[in-house]
Design brief:
The chain is mainly alpha-helical. Helix content is about 60%, strand content about 0%. It has helices at about 40-45, 50-65, 70-85, 90-100, 120-135, 140-160, 160-185, 190-200, 205-225, 225-230, 245-250, 250-255, 260-275, 280-295, 300-310, 315-330, 335-345. α13 packs antiparallel against α14. The radius of gyration is 23 Å and the shape is globular. The protein starts with about 40 loop residues before the first helix and ends in a 20-residue tail after the last helix.
């Protein structure tokens, strides 16, 4: 028996997709010579961090050369479009475009025989958050995550393959963290704390528990409850371990919260010197620069951040913090920020999925 082909032409309408401008990017990133050739394949655009051209290409492929029944390609391209928009700080546009999917819990999105969901998991998760933003209803997003969690639990119970079961368990854990993130975005910090604590109930792997504790520490520090934050520093749920790399790295934040800037600098310098992972070194160095700034050592802070830029790093918080220091150091901060933007825009040492574009907000322009 043949089943009728599903028609997804409503996702292929050109009016869904917004035109993208570069008004929110510094002039240095608008240089046409930096743009890839129009014929550049989508996978190459993604791998080289050209997320704006990738978003444009995905929309063009969706509206010009995709069959309304080819749901595999449609959802793959739609996911690329939405995730690239979020990566270029165009989340409001992504939220509006995500509304075109309507209710992903509808039976229309299920296979008529196997009842498997036709939409890839990554797109379903992303759509929950974006639709919550697009409909201005954060609670909708939370309920969407709980619906996905129900599906994940069903897959865990019915899966006969251990690797597949582990995949679904990891997805379920990820949904728990996303619910906490949404609660934080709503301003319900205490609710987020209770939710994170509930994730520690039952059998929890040691490393997972350490990560949950680290999140609870950061959340309580943000609330301003140092006592509650400190309670998670030295003990695990079963009282077995006294410390971990995730937990010990947060110790300097307590000194900062208490105004002991010199102690925080000393503690973080020790952690930076002892850190074996090269990937974490720039983050430690950036935090150390912020500590130096609070301690009144603005010249050292500026020198440290500029050295990170010179060594090839350009993540958003680094740019934002250095731009802040420019504002504190001189009246001509705008020219320094523009020069920084030009330096970063002309780099050819980015790739491997790292975005090339930075927005005005990153440079505080």
């Amino acid at each position: 028996m043949e089943y009728p082909t599903k028609d997804f032409s409503y996702i292929l309408r050109p009016d869904i997709y917004h035109p993208l401008t570069q008004l929110e990017t510094p002039p240095a990133f608008r240089d046409l010579s930096l743009n890839p050739a129009p014929s550049t394949p989508l996978p190459e655009l993604l791998s080289t961090g050209q997320f704006r051209p990738a978003a444009i290409t995905a929309a063009q492929l969706l509206t010009n050369s995709t069959s309304p029944s080819d749901y595999v390609q449609i959802f793959q391209l739609f996911y690329v479009r939405l995730i690239c928009l979020t990566l270029i700080n165009a989340t409001p546009l992504a939220a509006q475009e995500a509304k075109a999917l309507e209710d992903l819990g509808s039976s229309f999105y299920r296979h008529p025989i196997s009842h498997a969901h036709l939409v890839p998991w990554e797109l379903r998760v992303l759509a929950v958050r974006l639709q919550g933003i697009g409909f201005a209803d954060a609670r909708r997003g939370i309920m969407g995550y709980y619906d996905l969690a129900s599906d994940a639990r069903s897959e865990i119970l019915t899966s006969k393959d251990n690797a597949e079961r582990d995949t679904w368990k990891a997805r379920l854990e990820d949904l728990g963290i996303r619910v906490a993130n949404t609660l934080v975005e709503m301003g319900d910090l205490e609710g987020a704390g209770r939710h994170l604590e509930s994730l520690r109930v039952g059998p929890v792997e040691k490393e997972q528990d350490q990560l949950l504790r680290a999140r609870l520490i950061l959340l309580n520090l943000r609330i301003g409850d140092l006592t509650a934050a400190r309670a998670y520093m030295g003990k695990r749920k079963d009282e077995e371990d006294a410390g971990s790399p995730y937990i010990s790295a947060l110790e300097p934040l307590f000194s900062m919260a208490e105004g002991n800037y010199s102690d925080a600098i000393s503690q973080l310098s020790t952690l930076e010197n002892d850190e074996p992972s090269a990937a974490l070194q720039p983050l430690y160095a950036q935090n150390l620069a912020v500590f130096l700034l609070y301690n009144g050592e603005i010249a050292k802070a500026r020198s440290l951040l500029e050295s990170l830029i010179s060594s090839g790093h350009s993540f958003p918080t680094l740019i934002f913090n250095l731009s802040t220091i420019f504002e504190l150091c001189t009246d001509r901060s705008r020219s320094l920020k523009m020069a920084l933007a030009e330096k970063i825009a002309k780099r050819d040492d980015v790739g491997d999925g790292v975005g090339r574009e930075r927005g005005n907000v990153d440079f505080k322009l």
